[in-house]
Amino acid sequence: MVHMNIECLQMFCRVVDEGSVSKAARLGFVSQPAVTRQIRQLENRYGSELFDRMDGKLSLSATGKILYPYAKEIIQLDTLSFERIQEKTETTDSVLNVGASLTIGEYLLPGLLGNFKKHNTDIKFNLLIGNTPSILYKLEGNKIDIALVESAVNESKYKVKKFADDELILVTTYNHRWKEREEIDIHELTEEKMIWREKDSGTRLIVEKALNEYGVLDTIENAMELGSIQSIKSAVEGDLGISILPKLTVIKELKNKDLREVPIKDFSLVRDLWMVQKSRRFKKRAQISFETFLHS
Prior knowledge:
By secondary structure, this protein is α/β, with parallel strands linked by helices. The chain folds into 3 domains: 6-88, Orthogonal Bundle (Arc Repressor Mutant, subunit A), CATH 1.10.10.10; 90-164 and 273-295, Periplasmic binding protein-like II (D-Maltodextrin-Binding Protein, domain 2, 3-Layer(aba) Sandwich), CATH 3.40.190; 165-268, Periplasmic binding protein-like II (D-Maltodextrin-Binding Protein, domain 2, 3-Layer(aba) Sandwich), CATH 3.40.190.10. The protein has helices spanning 6-18, 21-28, 32-46, 62-88, 102-119, 132-140, 202-213, 229-237, 251-255, 285-295, and strands spanning 51-54, 57-60, 95-101, 124-130, 146-149, 158-173, 193-197, 221-226, 243-246, 259-261, 269-278. The strands form 3 sheets. Strands 3, 4, 5, 6, 9, 10 and 11 form a 7-stranded mixed sheet that branches. Helix 7 links the parallel strand 7 and strand 8 (221-226). It is globular. The model has no long low-confidence stretch (mean pLDDT 89).
């Protein structure tokens, strides 16, 4: 009998739910050939094709339709068995697996964990940092206990609570021509070049939405797109443009006078930061302690 693992069934259900291999691959952070291999493994296991492939479109075959509800049930039972054993395994009670989106993980979490560890010296941490979709994927697969993300999570299967907020501010070089100004008008942004995060960045989407509401987004000249906050800060310091960044990421640069905050008249951007957990019948002691700490 051909071997099968739970990941194959999870990927099969993801392909069905998303309607395509490419979407399932993107959500699972794997290549399309890897998804195809997992589906082929299942088809070998059951001796039948699970999808009909017509004109480039994917639809469940007759046997695929039989497997789908069973696969969902098997995945649910796997999750329940995992949780039940976790409940009884005291050795894992003092280990907390935390996942954080990039900005939170790099700029906010180190200080938070330092404060938490002062009063909880027996708790050990495993940390994962990535973009929000990858972190939620780890949460769904029980690889982490708590996710800390910047983007709102709409899925009803998660328990979502705000744990902090962060302001987005305009930063320039310290000696920029606006240095004597108490504030600028939002339309003055069109006189400068904007340095952006990549297009699917949560921070960028928030900024673009706000600027679009003020009718200035399409008239702002783009200097460049960069893949990290650190590279944007360096580019602004090098006078290659201006940028709107989370305040928590530039505290040190503002203090050291490497960058300057320039207020924009009648314009304020504050985003919420979210703690996301799976709805479970039980929680680790460490998880309860950390959740209480975040809300204090």
